Amino acid sequence: MNDMNNNHIESYNEHSKKKSKPFIAGILFITAGSISLLMWIGLASINLAFIESTILIELQSISAEYTFDNLSPESIKELLIICGSIGFFFSIFTILGGIMSFKKQFWKITLLGGILGLFSIGPLFISSILSTIGLLLVFISRKEFN
User: Fold this and answer.
1) How confident is the model at residue 117, as a pLDDT?
2) pTM of the model as a whole
């Protein structure tokens, strides 16, 4: 009887270890995508007064040998909106990859979401690091996907 319980516990542990990698990868991808999504939305929504009072002053104080005469607050705002849109796209695909990893379906979409998650950056490259770990787990557990 005790031997039967041990076999059941061992098979449960093997089963749970095997099935947990896509789940953990999904959590990592969704977390990475959410963090970078918030960051890119925040950057794209910075107003012109903030750009004038902080960003331009910081750029001018960096070095006197570079002139930023052609750099206006409007052009910085446009750049942040463009970068924010691209980051938003990468973040959405990273979240989609996390959902597919939960479902253990569409390995290629999960892989694409993880790769795009590398470029979503996030604050202090947290999203890129989480996506890297998630990609490793997806590669290891490729056979578990349908």
Assistant:
1) 92
2) 0.79
